[in-house]
């Protein structure tokens, strides 16, 4: 590894560990450099005693990734397959930081999916300590950090890390507390902070801590460093370097920028151009020499052929000193100022062309220079393939293949492959649903959505019960009762929509945690169903005494409200699971809600319409049952002598509207059947989606 600005002597914030080591902390007050290094050595020894030391050497051997859509299999001409990565080679040694840089992010994304074992490459191979990486097997041995919402939003840092440890291992008591504290020390986190109050840098470090407690030999960071401020991105990069230095883990970072803070800690770079073409792969220290030699060979070859050089757009002359070159990528502190600009390659290349000087007199090379050239060469396929062929034929690539051959033999003993399976004893599968329910209950208790839902039900139930109780026994009172009940059920649906506004975030969290091996689909469905029913039972139970003893109403009315709320909640989730597109799912739910309102029996007389029109409306079942419960066998006097033609008893009105056969029992059976079908649909859809 290359020793740069961040190394094993970088200070650690010891947090609570320093208070537990009284002798070591006394050295912190000393001005002696030797004493200070003793403290840091003690911290390193503490971390190395808690976590396993060592990573895996990843060899990428001529890896090609080609993706096909479902339509491309049936219509290959209209929907051709896409080559995401073409004959990539890389040697990522253990204990190093390795960056996969990509101008559009696609090639690096698909290659890292192969490296992590999430999928397989079309041709070529990926080796980990000489053992081929198999999709689905190696994934659990890799810690993956992405921008998906891994942490539980309302829990503290310590509770989030405890959640991961509890779901993955049987570690309990002091051993678990020690592991959590070590993760906080390593990532420099305050364990008392809540997730919602973390800065972007702290949020990344929490995701990292939740992965490092698994003790994986390889850590892959998909996290978009180009969306962080310069200081936050530098902090995150320094923490990753620290892990590779102290614990000797293999760190792989996917990035669309090669800013100085990232380039300085990087050991090797795999640089992609257009269509997944490899423009460079090797040590960062050799990058400048390679581009110098590339420029020299091209200029000597094309001397006297300026017109050919113009045709090929040879822009390797556009080098500039690293300390003079402005950022050509949307990264660091400039991101906020340019967040409204398009991030296409053409826009970035035009900016790069304007800012890069046409000289190679001073080549103080850094990562941004290489990425600038990759962006310029990515304007057309001619440039990209020309420079990709130059690297393909280079001695640097041949030397790398020879080095890879030395790592391509499986280890002779079991030590080299033990990180594939992990060292900690996994948690019992039967305990995972209850552990997940416990941490979900902690989060739900602090969820503001629960308060909103409670307030909606509180206001709705109080208003409906008070107004229904005060209505006169005449025709006007009868019409008011039906209107008030309809508004209550509509309010219940609106409350569900407000609470489930973040259902897509919850589903993304589920997919990420399930794919990371925390739990399976059955475990999630068990907790989801129990939580949905339990919350509504608690809310409705608070109003039972008022409804039964103060307002003299039947408890079956509350059952209808609860059944509607539960059924609509399952329907809401089912639509978002089956239709991944958030906006489309939301529009479908809005259309269905409008349909339910129109064909509920409140606005239109359903007796003159086909039966199925009202049967597929949730509001029709609860509204009809509630109306029958309130109006059946009620006389209701007429308003006056002149209104006898529109004077109905409760039974007559129910027959007129087509609700004479409605009952609470029938509606509850129908809604219960709907719930069962929706739960089954959600479970199957979640199990089938990756």
Low-confidence stretches: 1-38, 301-363
Q: Roughly what fraction of the amino acids lie in strands?
A: 5-15%
Structural class based on helices, strands and sheet pairing: alpha/beta
Order of strands, main sheet, comes to 6-7-8-3-9-10
Instruction: Identify the CATH homologous superfamily of the largest domain.
Output: P-loop containing nucleotide triphosphate hydrolases
Q: Main sheet, how many strands, which sense, barrel? A: 6 strands, mixed
Give an account of the 3D structure.
InterPro entries: ABC2_TM, ABC_transporter-like_ATP-bd, ABCG_transporters, P-loop_NTPase. One of its GO terms (cellular component) is membrane. It is a multi-pass membrane protein. Keywords: Membrane, Transmembrane, Transmembrane helix, Transport. By secondary structure, this protein is α/β, with parallel strands linked by helices. It has two domains: about 1-145 and about 220-410, P-loop containing nucleotide triphosphate hydrolases (Rossmann fold); about 450-635 and about 650-690. It has 28 helices and ten strands. The strands form two sheets. It has a six-stranded mixed beta sheet, sandwiched between helices. A four-stranded antiparallel beta sheet has the order 2-1-4-5, with helices on both faces. Helix 21 runs antiparallel to helix 23 (about 555-580). The longest helix is centred in the last third of the chain and has 25 residues, at about 475-500. The chain is elongated.
């Amino acid at each position: 590894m290359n020793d740069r600005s961040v190394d094993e002597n970088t200070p650690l914030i010891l947090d609570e560990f320093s208070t537990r080591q009284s002798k070591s902390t006394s050295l912190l007050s000393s001005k002696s450099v030797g004493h200070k290094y003793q403290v840091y050595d003690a911290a390193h020894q503490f971390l190395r005693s808690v976590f396993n030391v060592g990573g895996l050497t990843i060899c990428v051997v001529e890896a090609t990734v080609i993706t096909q859509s479902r339509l491309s299999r049936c219509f290959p001409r209209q929907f051709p397959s896409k080559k995401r990565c073409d004959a990539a080679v890389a040697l990522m040694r253990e204990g190093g930081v390795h960056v996969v840089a990509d101008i559009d992010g696609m090639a690096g994304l698909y290659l890292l999916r192969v490296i992590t074992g999430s999928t397989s490459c079309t041709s070529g191979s990926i080796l980990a300590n000489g053992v081929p990486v198999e999709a689905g097997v190696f994934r659990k041995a890799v810690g993956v950090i992405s921008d998906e919402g891994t942490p539980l939003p309302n829990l503290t840092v310590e509770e989030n890390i405890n959640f991961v440890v509890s779901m993955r291992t049987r570690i309990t008591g002091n051993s678990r507390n020690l592991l959590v504290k070590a993760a906080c020390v390593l990532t420099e986190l305050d364990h008392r902070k809540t997730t919602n109050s973390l800065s972007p840098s702290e949020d990344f470090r929490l995701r990292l801590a939740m992965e490092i407690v698994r003790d994986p030999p390889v850590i892959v960071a998909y996290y978009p460093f180009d969306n962080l401020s310069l200081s936050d991105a530098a902090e995150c990069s320094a923490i990753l370097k620290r892990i590779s230095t102290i614990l000797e883990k293999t760190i792989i970072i996917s990035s669309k920028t090669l800013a100085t803070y990232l380039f300085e800690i990087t050991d090797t770079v795999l640089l992609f151009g257009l269509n997944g073409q490899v423009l460079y792969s090797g040590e960062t220290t050799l990058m400048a020499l390679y581009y110098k030699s590339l420029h020299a060979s091209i200029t000597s070859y094309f001397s006297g052929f300026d017109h050919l050089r113009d045709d090929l757009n040879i822009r390797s002359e556009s080098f500039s000193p690293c300390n003079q070159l402005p950022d050509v990528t949307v990264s660091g502190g400039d991101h906020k100022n340019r967040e409204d600009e398009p991030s296409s390659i053409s826009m970035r290349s035009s900016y790069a062309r304007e800012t890069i000087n046409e000289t190679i007199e001073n080549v103080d090379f850094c990562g941004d220079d290489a990425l600038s050239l990759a962006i310029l060469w990515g304007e057309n396929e001619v440039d990209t393939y020309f420079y990709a062929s130059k690297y393909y034929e280079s001695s640097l690539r041949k030397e790398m293949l020879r080095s890879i051959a030395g790592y391509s033999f499986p280890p002779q003993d079991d030590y080299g492959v033990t990180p594939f399976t992990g060292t900690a004893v996994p948690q019992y599968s039967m305990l995972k649903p209850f552990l997940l329910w416990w941490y979900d209950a902690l989060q739900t208790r602090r969820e503001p959505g629960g308060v909103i839902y409670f307030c909606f039900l509180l206001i709705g139930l109080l208003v409906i019960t008070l107004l229904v109780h005060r209505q006169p026994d005449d025709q006007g009172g009868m019409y008011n009762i039906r209107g008030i009940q309809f508004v209550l059920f509509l309010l219940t649906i609106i409350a569900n929509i407000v609470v489930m506004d973040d259902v897509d975030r919850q589903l993304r969290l589920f997919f990420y945690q399930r794919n990371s091996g925390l739990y399976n689909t059955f475990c999630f469905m068990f907790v989801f169903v129990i939580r949905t029913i339990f919350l509504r039972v608690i809310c409705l139970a608070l109003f039972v005494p008022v409804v039964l003893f103060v307002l003299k109403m039947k408890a079956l009315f509350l059952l209808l409200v609860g059944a509607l709320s539960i059924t609509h909640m399952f329907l809401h989730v089912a639509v978002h699971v089956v239709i991944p597109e958030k906006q489309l799912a939301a529009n479908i739910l809005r259309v269905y809600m409008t349909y339910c309102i129109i064909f509920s029996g409140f606005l239109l007389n359903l007796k003159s319409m086909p039966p199925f029109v009202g049967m597929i409306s949730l509001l029709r079942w609860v509204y009809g049952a509630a109306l029958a419960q309130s109006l059946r066998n009620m006389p209701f006097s007429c308003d006056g002598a002149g209104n006898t033609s529109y004077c109905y008893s409760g039974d007559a009105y129910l027959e007129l509207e087509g609700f004479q056969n409605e009952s609470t029992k029938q509606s509850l059976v129908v809604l219960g059947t709907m719930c069962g079908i929706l739960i089954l649909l959600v479970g199957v859809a979640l199990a089938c989606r990756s």
